[in-house]
């Protein structure tokens, strides 16, 4: 592999809502969002087609509503709307970087975002627009991780870049357990059997069945997205 050259032609970047938090406890840190957008521009400039699935956990998670006694479906609908809010912030930041973007929502919200029409999304990518997927799959009981995998398959992305706040996949939670060890590579079955925290099991199974690799890496280290895209060793590769 040539140094600095992209290892993939098309990637799906999964950003959790937490990525936009910065040092805030809640909501969107616009400086942090701009910094992420600048890193996305770096990989786009390499000629890579970029689609993003954005989460909503910095604003609302369905599970939180359920814990407070809410109906699961209503709580998940709030979570879905949270992802659209994040998508709008990210779109603005990407445009400030000079990128052309399209916001897609799996929930109909015409004045704000396009519906998901696969051939149209493929056309956007061919035209070098950055596609931002919001509202997950538009249905409750799913996560934006599972939505990321399904959309990645539909648009024929070659890898899922799962940006997190840890350096990769560990044997246990490194924030709690000092003896936790990091895996350089791991296979899908081990992730499922050892219930390692990568993505939820639906998302992992979908990757496994369709042989779609995931690179899990720390978003808070500048340059990591580019490293993942150029095939440099970063984080953990799940395949
Ligand atoms: N959600 C959903 N269906 C989906 C994707 C997301 O109902 O297809 C809801 C769910 O309540 C979830 C919330 O949206 O808790 C935010 O998404 P997620 O937790 O995946 O965001 P992240 O952890 O990536 O920030």
Walk me through the structure.
There is one protein chain. This protein has 239 residues and is α/β, with parallel strands linked by helices. It has one domain: Carbamate kinase (3-Layer(aba) Sandwich). It has helices at residues 30-45, 62-67, 72-96, 118-126, 144-154, 188-193, 201-210, 224-229; strands at 10-15, 49-54, 101-105, 114-115, 130-134, 159-164, 185-186, 214-218, 236-238. Helix 1 (30-45) crosses helix 3 and helix 5 runs parallel beside helix 7 (201-210). It is globular and about 50 Å long. It starts with 9 loop residues before the first strand and ends with a strand. The mean pLDDT is 96. Residues 16-18, 55-57, 61-63, 75-76, 79-80, 82-83, 136-137, 139-140, 142-145, 147 line the site of uridine-5'-diphosphate (UDP). Uridine-5'-diphosphate binds next to helix 2, helix 3 and helix 5.
Give the number of domains: 1
Taking the alpha carbons of the first and last residues, their distance comes to: 19 Å
**In the CATH hierarchy, what is the superfamily?**
Acetylglutamate kinase-like
What is the tally of helical segments? 8
In CATH terms, what is the fold-level topology?
Carbamate kinase
What's the mean pLDDT score? 96
Radius of gyration: 17 Å
The main pleated sheet reads as: 9 strands, mixed
Number of strands: 9
What hetero molecules are bound to the protein chains? Answer: uridine-5'-diphosphate
Summing up helix and strand content along with how strands pair, one would put the structural category as alpha/beta
From the 3D coordinates, which CATH architecture would you assign?
3-Layer(aba) Sandwich
Low-confidence stretches: none
Report the top-level CATH class.
Answer: Alpha Beta
User: Which range does the strand content fall in?
Assistant: 15-25%
Q: In which order are the strands of the major sheet placed?
A: 4-3-5-2-1-6-8-9-7
Helix content: 25-40%
């Amino acid at each position: 592999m040539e140094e600095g050259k992209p290892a993939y032609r098309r990637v799906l970047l999964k950003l959790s809502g937490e990525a936009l938090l910065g040092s805030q406890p809640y909501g969107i840190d616009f400086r942090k969002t701009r910094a992420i957008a600048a890193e996305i521009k770096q990989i786009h400039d390499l000629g890579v087609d970029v689609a993003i699935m954005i989460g909503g956990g910095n604003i609302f998670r369905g599970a939180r509503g359920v814990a407070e006694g809410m109906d699961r479906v209503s709580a998940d609908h709030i979570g879905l709307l949270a992802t659209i809010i994040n998508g709008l912030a990210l779109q603005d930041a990407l445009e400030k970087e000079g990128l052309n973007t399209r916001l897609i929502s799996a929930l109909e919200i015409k004045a704000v975002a396009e519906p998901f029409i696969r051939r149209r999304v493929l056309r956007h990518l061919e035209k070098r627009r950055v596609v931002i997927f919001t509202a997950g799959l538009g249905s409750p009981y799913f996560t934006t991780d599972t939505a990321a995998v399904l959309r990645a398959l539909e648009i024929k992305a070659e890898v899922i870049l799962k940006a997190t706040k840890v350096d990769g996949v560990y044997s246990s939670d490194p924030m709690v357990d000092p003896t936790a060890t990091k895996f350089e590579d791991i296979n899908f079955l081990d992730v499922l059997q050892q219930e390692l925290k990568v993505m939820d099991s639906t998302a992992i199974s979908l990757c496994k069945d369709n042989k779609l690799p995931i690179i899990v890496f720390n978003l808070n280290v500048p340059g990591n997205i580019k490293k993942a895209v150029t095939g440099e060793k970063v984080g953990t590769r799940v395949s």
